[in-house]
């Protein structure tokens, strides 16, 4: 299955990129690199793609497992190499689950399934980075 995007230069350092979903996004450099900060940075967008891919998996599994979760978020810290071309060599993902009655075992299973089996973006990241995953439960009833 092929995906097609078109990324069009809008002048200076700004681009508009299509997406198969029909939603467009803007990419731009920061002022330190000649841009106006009017869009996403390409490398940070990769991290958002990783969080989004795994987040969609986990949200789907929460629904399928009928788990009671008030909210969850994913935080990512990534280290860029110093030599050019710079790339992420170490990535840490933190899953934070919030609720009154969290089923920690099933939620951990959902994270594990995403990370180990379902998330294709995670598999791509593993080709060039060491990825570690941490799970935190903020259980109000505990």
TrEMBL record:
Listed Pfam families: OsmC
**Mind telling me which SUPFAM superfamilies this protein's record contains?**
OsmC-like
Give the InterPro entries listed for this entry.
KH_dom-like_a/b, OsmC/Ohr_fam, OsmC/Ohrsf
Coiled-coil region list: none
PANTHER family hit by this protein:
PROTEIN YHFA
Record's protein name: OsmC family protein
Q: Which organism is it from?
A: Seonamhaeicola algicola
